[in-house]
Structure formats: structure tokens, C-alpha cells
Amino acid sequence: MSNPSERTRLLAPSQQAAPSASPHDTIVTDEEARQASLAARIEAVKESVPRSQLYTSLVCLFSSVTLVGLDTTLVTTLGGYISSSFDAAEYLPWIGLSYMLTNCACAPLYGRLADVIGRKQALLMGVAFFTAGTAMCAVAPSMILLVFARALAGMGGGGIAACMSIVLTDLVPNRSRGLYQGVAQLVFSIGTASGGPLGGLLAETLGWRWSFLSQVPLLLTAYITIVFMLHLPKLPKEEDEPEAVAQTAPMATNDQARSDDSGEARTAPPHAEVQTVPLWKLLDLPGTLLLIISLLCLISGLTLISSSRLPISDPKVIACLVSFAVLTAVFLSYEGTVAKRTGAVIPMRLFNNRTVICAAGYYLTSNFAFQGFIFHMPIYFQAGRLYTSTKTGLQMLPFSINTAVSALFAGFYLRKTGRYWNLLQICNLITIATLASYTTFDINTSDVKLYASIIPNGIGAASFTIVLVALTTALPHRDQASAQGLMFFCRGLGSVLGLGISGALFQDRVANELGARIRGPGSAEIIEKLRRDILFIRKLDPVTQLQARESFILAFQTVARASTAAFACCFILALWLPEHTINKTQKPDAEQQPDEATAPAATSTNGRQEGSPA
Question: According to the UniProt entry, which residue ranges have a biased composition of type Low complexity (predicted)?
């Protein structure tokens, strides 16, 4: 070994430090460490929220959600009374469709609102729209204005649901997120269970307008309660994110809103000229308008097929569906280019995350499956089994109860174990098995088999809680509001597609079966009456009645097959969903260095970072 000289290297080649990572690798590593530090500090703040503040805030959230659930089923009992009052039965389907349209289309807007004006202010806006729409329903002088009022109420109802979910994410630690989502599902179920009987009672005693008017004082109370009792923690924000991008917008500079919650708008890119951006661009109102119009075309086309019974080849149907496709393409292009500069209502960068793709697809296909089942199962009981409305409700009650119980169980399981992938697959397999069993239902199916299929189907509702927790675990805090707004949009879109497509399948099958079975003089009139009023089946002679019952049951089996296929797609998406361990929150430590902080949900179980924000 040669003697060292003053020109000899201080470190031999084998002793030298490893070459430094490339600049790109260094940036990624720093971003991961920064996000881990931020996530740990956010979770520590949530853990420190006093119990009294937590419980009063939950009362504010759940009271408004309960009223939305009550309104959902309350309105379904009023259709006959409303159509008789205005003598405008042709507009009756649009009472529900207008609500569904705005409820679905405005959900992403509230995710954007929550970032721009704050979580609390966005929630208050949702309650205000819902209250105004409900009050207008009570005094509407015509069916057209009633449909408009329901659309206004839908804007608020979608906002309340989305903002409740966003606020819960800011209020409770992620490991307990599923539990509180299960409680929200429970109180929503209480509202939906109460709405039908209450609406029928008020309509029969005081008139259908009181069914809407009676909600207004409760909604005003909920609004005032939120103003004075909802106090959200001030969560840490990303140090290198620009300050609120809406500083020049009057609503965005509300200091009270910014002090009450962590909903500052921090999603604008650093290079954006935020000082000159008007509020309407920050909220992406053009994108929201495109979304509403495209969904209107879709709903109109599906309604022409399912309600008006036009064939899909009809020019009106084709025009609606083609318009929907074109407008959707324009919307996606706009969101990815123009709206990206100031803040898109649905940020396209979210789709760089595999969890977001799986969750969005799951919400869409699962709600497609459930809506087809929930809407047509009562028809099976009333037309196929000749059950009364009361007995039909009792048959469906176990499903509603198990829906809430399963969501609560899933929440406890997630908090206890911090894992969700295996539970999600079990829920999916049980749901597929129960939906598949509906394809074998007939006139002679025993009550034991009915309950054995219906009760376990409620377990599928737990999957919504599980997927939502997976989503909130995989994303940084800055993307939580937009991502949850996207999920509620997919939920609404799945419901629209589920009702429209399953309704079209049902109507087509029942028309074919009735036409093949009921023949002879007056058969066309009988078939038309049956398609318009399923209770007419009770007035038929025994032979014709049996033929009609078999036709409705076969049509229900067709819907059950479509729902089963849709949930099979959910199962495939769930298999692709990565699992992130929901770690327990560390206690805050003033001496802890940022790179020592542990993110509550930073890596998947295989140790690989997934879905870093673009």
C-alpha cells in the first residue's frame, strides 16, 4: 500500500460516500417527508380537540344530515297528492329528477367551495339552499315552480352531504373516521325511516304543503346551530403553499370563516396570478354549468327510455345521449386546460392517484347496483307477491337496519385494526351473493329465503364507509375536499344511471312478458294500465293476475342480474385498491424533527408510496 502524500485523496474510492441521488429523486424524497410531517401534525391537532367541542360539532352536522334523509323519503309519499293538486301528472317524475340532477352536479362544487370560502361557510350555504328550496316547495303555485324549487333544494342537499363528510375529515382523526361515518349513516337512516310515515300523515291531515312547511323551522334551527356551535380546529397547512388564492374575492377574505376552520383555498398552482382571479373563476362556475347541462341531457334521455318508454333508437333519445357525450368531452377538456389555471371543480390531477380511480369507480358502480335493487324490490313485493305497502315496508326494514349496523361495525373495525382491504373484499362477496340470489326469486320464494337474502345485503353499505376511509388515508389534506366532492358526484351519477338503465331494462322486459302472456280482447288496455299502475294487478281475474305477476317477477330478475354484474365490477375495482395502514396518531412533540414524523397513512402495506399528488 503506497504512502499517502499531500495530493492523495482523503477518502479511498471504497470509503467515499455513495453518489447523491438525482435532483428528481431528492425532490420526491423531500416532498414525501414534508407530507409525512404535515399529516402527523394535522392528526395531532385533531386528537387534541376537546370532547365538548367534538360532540357539539357532531350534533350540528348530524342534525342537518338527518333532515336531508327525512326529506328524501318524505317526498316519495307525496307524488299522488301533488299531481292531483296541480293536475299535472306528466311532470311528476321531474320532482325527483330535478332534485337528483342538482344534488349530483353540485357535489364537486361544494368540494371547491370548501377550499375557497371555508368548510363552515360551504356547509351553511348548503343548508341555506336546502331551506330556501323546501320553503318554495311549500308555497309553489304551479308544478313548474315546484320542480324548480326541488332543484334548488337538491343544490343544498348535495352540499350538506358533501360538506358533512369533508368537515368530519377535518374534525376527527383518520383512524376514527369510519366510526363517525357509520354514525352519520345511522342518523341518516333514522331520517329516511321517519320521512315516509311523517309525510303521509301530514298529507292526509293537513295537506301535502305542510310536509314541506314543517321542515323549515327545523332547518332554520339547524342553520343557527351551525353558526354558533360548529367550531372546527385550525389545522396546519403546507408551508410552501401560497396563501389563500381568493384574497381578492369578497367571500374568500372572510376572516371569521378562515379562523373557524382550515378551509382556505390552497389549491392554486404557485405560478398562478391569484391577485386578479375573480371569484366565479375560483369556483369554476363554467365547469359546473357544463356538468349540470350534460347531466340534464343524460337524465332526459334515460327518462324518455324508462318513463316514456321510447326505444333507444328514437331520435329524441339519441339526441339527448349524444349531447351528453359531447358535453362531457367538452367538460373534461375544459377542466384539464382552462379551469386548471385557477382551480377546477374536479381537478384532473386527482386521477393520478390509483386510490382515487378505484374509489370513484367503486362509488359509481355500487350505487348503480344498489339503486336498481332498492327501487325495484318493492315492485317485486307489491306486484309479484301482492304484498301491501305496509308489509313491503316491513320486508325492507331489516335491510335498512343492517345498513346502519354494518357501517358502524366497519367503523369500529377500522379504528381497532387500522386495516380495511380484507374487510372490503368480504363485504363485496356477501353483496354479490345476495344480489345473485335475487335472480332466483319467484312467486313461491319462502320468507326465510327472502330475509336470508335481504338482511345480509345491508352489509354492502359498509363498503361505502371503508372506501371513503381508504380515500382520505391515501390523499394529502389539500386534496381532501375536492376528492370527497368527486366521490359524492360519482355516487349521484351512479344513482342516476342505476335508476335510468335498470328502469329501462325493467320496462322493456315487463312489456315483452306481458305481451306474450296476456292476449285476447282488451289485452292492450290491460297491459297499458299495468305498466302505469302496478296496483291494478289486484283487480284482475286469477288467471290474468298470475300471468301478470310472473311478468313482473321476470322483469325484476333482469334488474337483479344487472345489479349483480355492476357489483362484480366493484369487486374487481376493490381488488386493485391499494391498502394503506391507518396508523395511530403520535403525540405531538416539540422536539420532534419533521423527518421523524410519521404520517398516519403515508405508505401502502407493501411499503411503496402510492398516489403522490401531481
Answer: 12-23
